[in-house]
Amino acid sequence: MLPNFIALVYLGMVHQRGPLDTMTVLRQDIAKFESPNILFLMPCHSTPYYSHLHKNVSMRFLTCEPNLAYRGNYFDEADTFEKDPAAWLHQHYNPQGNGEGISKEHSDIILPSHLVLFDVLVSKIKDFLRNHKYHLKHRLFHAHIEDGRRVQAEHNRN
């Protein structure tokens, strides 16, 4: 009985707690921004989103729609991002001139004030982070056993 209780406490309170902690930190942090805009660069549905944020804020996550048209070689947005994160960011947030602009294709999109991602992604998008003046704001615990996305990080624009 004791091993089950220990497993229950660990799995329920400690293991993979990053997404919940992220939403708590974001809820406190976005109050400092006039128009916060959050981009989650994580597998779709990794965070509880609005249910824990309790704020009217623009948020976007990578989508993972099923292949309802049964197209061959189908990749959803999360798959496409995972394949080449830097190219995906360049396509969606291509700087024009002063680094504040967006590609004409996505002219209605502004650069997010916050990026939420797992630390293993940082090295793949470091140029984007540097070019757009994002810096690490928080590093949060996710799990003791690395599953390829161990630590959650939040980056803010200056």
What does this structure look like?
The model is unreliable at 97-101 (pLDDT under 50). Strand 1 (37-41), helix 3 and strand 2 form a beta-alpha-beta unit. Helix 4 crosses helix 5. The protein has 158 residues and is of the alpha/beta class. The protein has helices at residues 2-13, 18-29, 50-53, 77-83, 85-92, 126-131, and strands spanning 37-41, 58-61, 114-118, 134-140, 152-157. Helices cover 31% and strands 17% of the residues. The chain has one domain (2-157). It has a 5-stranded mixed sheet with strand order 2-1-3-5-4. The chain is globular, with a radius of gyration of 17 Å. This is Mannosyltransferase. Its EC number is 2.4.1.-. Keywords: Endoplasmic reticulum, Glycosyltransferase, Membrane, Transferase, Transmembrane, Transmembrane helix.
Key features?
158 residues; five-stranded mixed sheet; globular; membrane; alpha-1,2-mannosyltransferase activity
